[in-house]
Amino acid sequence: MIKFIKKISFPLFALLLIVSCENSDYLEGPEFSKAALFSPIGGITNEDNSSPFFQINDFVSISDVSIGVLSREWTIEKENFFLKTFQEKDTINLEAFIDETKTTVSTEQDLFMLFKKVGQNVVNYRGVFKDSTAFQALDGSPGRTAIPAVKEGDIWVLSVDFNYTVIDSIKPEVTISNADGSNVLGALGINQFPSRNNTTAFPVIEIEAGTVLKFTDNTTVGFLEGTDANGDPNTSRVWNFEGAAPEKSTELIQDVAFNRTGEYIFDITINRAQRGRTLPFSKRNKVIPYIIKVVPSTQPFVLQESPYAIDDEDNSKGTKIINIDVNGELEPFSGVESKFALSVVDRNGNPINVSVSAAEVDLKNPSKIKLTLDAAIFNTDVVTLSYDGNTTQGSSDITAVDGRPFAIFTNETVTPLVTNFLTSDVNPSFEQGVVNETNANAANYDFTTPSGNSFRNNPAPDNGLILNRTDEQKSDGDFSMRFRGEMPLQGGFMSLVSSEVSNLGIPAGDYKLLMDIFIKDDGSVFNGVFMGFQGAAGGFYFDFGNPTPGTWVTIEQEITFSNELNRDIVINFRNNDNSGVTGIQTFYIDNIKLENFEIR
Asked: What is the 3-class SS of 415-477, one letter each residue?
């Protein structure tokens, strides 16, 4: 009988067929045949009808405990090996138990097989019985049909294939390239086994501080596709970029910034999840065999973009925070507030006295200077910022971690903090479509006309909708709203209603309405539309002005909401606003915005 069956975490083995057994040591059994094969891993396939997964150099065991079997043969792939009987303590070095007396066929009752072939593996059982029989997996898996024996003369022959998917050991592969990926600077191959204890042969990649390199995980050997039952990937990774930014990552491709001088060696760990009962959790760590040597940058330490205002999370108007993004990592500094100077002028041209009360490195981003002001700036103010600190090497007021002094700047315009209340849910650029002419084929809009009037042109030059979502022209995204109708309109007007706005809870206050328009260059003319803000403000005429046909222009209008906007925004196309306009007119609307407008 079996001396050893592979230990598993489940308490019950799976009986692949029916009970009882026969062995040459036993008395002759009854005059009938029942095929029964016994294995700790279950049936021919997993419950999802996939073959069981094994790791390379693992083994499988199956025992033939059939009744009435006259002879048997196990046939394995030529790359795999039969094993002799062994004890559990011997499973670390299974190759020592390879049965050299067998090739690919065995007639033993018990099968022990060592997997050496990656990919799909088949073990064939051929049993000869004196009576009719069939093989049926009795492991509770649905949808499995019995495999009948086939009569050959006076005997019955049963042939069963056991299928296994064998996964190779994890062998990480990595490439290092420049920021845009166009130039590969180094690679970790599957046959490299570098060590942090011996780095003398590691090539050096020398870069300047502030450089970004791209690290790509190219691992395929030992990689298991797909996700587990929880939706997590079967194979994942952890990058260790200690000293760089970020210091850790799980991304397949990671851009890494090097801001601090020094020499760095990194590593990657590939994790493969457990799969079923037979493929255990596995991980492999490898050092990336390169030294990244970061030297001081030859570039000046300067602003990356204009300073900009951010939300100070105070519910009152304006903000007291300005951020400055720089092209390197900052050393901590203090006492430099007086080196920054602000000029603030309100919308009426009046100067406002505002100064910097605190300056520091941003806690979340060491490449950002955070300025706190002693008074709020409004988004209708014109704000400029200057810096006039000491720039002497070695004694500068603000310094990069690689020693570069921060350069002075003068009268940089501060980008104001503006909030657009018309979020993507409102569909302000008509990107979300529906197939319904009563919605003008745009999600979250309704197309209305006076009672008894058609949505279509009458007479219609192309029998199309007067208002329709289209990709003919666009200023933002891929779509816009087209008006194509014969003026004057029947019934005097039609409306496009944005109903989703009512869910936003836009508070009372001052706002600026902006809209992009495009008048078709075919003689079309349109003076403007009438805007309605239900529940918040009275309507107003939105004048298009005299835009150049054939080009997108942005029009804007200031408006005050006396109450919360808790109903719809309505765009009305009216004859009254377009006196004297006749014939077919075509224009497009896109990128509607409602921005907060802070007035002192």
From this structure: ECCCCECCCHHHCCCCCCECCCHHHCCECCEEEECCCCCCCECCCCCCCCECEEEECCCCCCC
Nearest to 325 by CA among 300, 310, 306, 339: 306
- Phi and psi at residue 92, to the nearest 5°: -70, -40
3-state secondary structure of 46: coil
Query: Please, what CATH class does the domain formed by 14-167 belong to?
Result: mainly beta
Of the candidates 317, 339, 495, 362, the one whose C-alpha atom is nearest the C-alpha of residue 409 is 339
Length of the chain: 600
Q: Which fold has domain 174-295?
A: Immunoglobulin-like (2.60.40)
Cis peptide leading into residue 488 (ω within 30°): yes
Other beta carbons within 10 Å of 27? 5
Q: Indicate the residue type of 166.
A: V
pLDDT of 421 strictly over 70: yes
- Provide the residue ranges of all domains of the chain, joining segments of one domain with +: 14-167, 174-295, 308-413, 424-596
pLDDT at 218 over 90: yes
Q: Is-contact 346 380, C-beta < 8 A?
A: yes
Note the pLDDT tens digit of each residue in 22-52.
333 323 334 456 666 766 654 444 444 467 8
pLDDT in tens, 183-211: 999 999 999 999 999 999 999 999 998 89
User: What is the enclosing helix (H) or strand (E) of 295?
Assistant: strand 291-295
Report the half-sphere exposure of 529 (CA within 13 A, side-chain side).
Answer: 23
Residue 359 class from Cβ within 10 Å (0-12 exposed, 13-18 middle, 19+ buried)? buried
Q: Which fold has domain 424-596?
A: Jelly Rolls (2.60.120)
Question: 406 forms bridges with which residues in the sheet?
Answer: 301
Same fold, 174-295 and 308-413: yes
Spatial CA neighbour of 533 closest among 570, 505, 498, 502:
570
More confident residue, 448 or 237: 237
Q: Residue 406 corresponds to which tokens in the numbers above?
A: 């921060």
Tens digit of each residue's pLDDT (9 = 90 or more) over 551-591: 999 999 999 988 888 788 999 999 999 999 999 999 999 99
73-102 as b/e: b if 16+ CB within 10 A: ebbbbeebbbbeebeeeeeeebeebebeeb
With beta carbons less than 8 A apart as the criterion, state whether 62 and 87 touch.
no
Cβ atoms of 55 and 167 within 8 Å: the answer is yes
Token digits for 324? Answer: 């400055």
| Architecture field, domain 308-413 | Sandwich (2.60)
Residue with tokens 């901590």: 332
* Structure token digits, residue 45: 């396939």
Q: Around Cβ 242, how many Cβ atoms within 10 Å?
A: 10
Run of H or E including 228: none
Instruction: DSSP for 235-282, please give it.
Output: EEEEEE-TTSBSSEE--SEEEEEE-S-EEE--EEEEEE--BTTTB--E
Unique residue bearing structure tokens 């009948």:
148
Q: How far apart are CA 360 and CA 349, in angstroms?
A: 31
User: Would you state the torsion angle of the CA atoms of residues 354, 357, 362, 364, taken in this order, to the nearest 10 degrees?
Assistant: -90
